[in-house]
Design brief:
Length: about 190
């Protein structure tokens, strides 16, 4: 598993709380900058004389689509503390992307949801459970060229959790779980 902190939406063991006010969604603590320099830093780089070359027909701000090509990273989100609610609150984990807003701020523009889990009930949000696992999908809309990625932990309006944390939300190079452990056994012992 690749655990580079620059690729972790929620670093291992951080336990990001998803407890917030009524209807308030919680973004991941880290925003991944596909350029690698960080939110708010010019694509020209932090190093004097560094030059970023943008390949294409027009010179625009840096952007890339991690969901295309032969290598597609996988995302894995794991619950830390079990979730609890006094109402029927559900959790929807969303992978979101945003283009670079450009000079002078170099901040994310509008966030677009690329893929999401759909609403999950509290009964499914128990400690140490993997609640999201999917590869990066091609960007949507098709003309989106994002520099920034984040997770958004969305809750319905007028609802909230009273307990619950995300243990980690990391990017891996491949699925590193033993998926066949859930398969039915095809033998008997006499």
């Amino acid at each position: 598993m690749r655990l580079d902190s620059a690729l972790a939406f929620v670093p291992l063991g951080y336990n990001q709380s998803i407890v917030a006010g009524l209807g308030i969604s919680v973004p991941s603590i880290n925003t991944i900058d596909m350029l690698g320099l960080g939110v708010g830093i010019s694509p020209g780089g932090a190093n004097p004389g560094q030059q970023i070359v943008i390949i294409g027909s027009e010179a625009t701000n840096f952007g890339t689509d991690q969901g295309i090509g032969g290598f597609r990273p996988e995302l894995e989100v794991v619950v830390g503390t079990a979730f609890a609610t006094s109402d029927s609150c559900t959790l929807n984990v969303q992978l979101q992307a945003a283009a670079d807003a450009g000079s002078p701020s170099w901040l994310p523009s509008t966030w677009n949801t690329i893929v999401e889990t759909g609403p999950m009930a509290v009964a499914n949000l128990t400690a140490n459970t993997v609640i999201a696992r999917f590869p990066y999908l091609p960007n949507f809309p098709a003309n989106l060229r994002p520099r920034f990625l984040r997770l958004n932990f969305a809750v319905p309006a007028a609802e909230q959790f009273t307990a619950g944390t995300i243990l980690c939300a990391v990017v891996t190079l491949v699925r590193d779980d033993q998926a066949n452990r859930f398969a039915s056994k095809n033998y008997t012992v006499a």
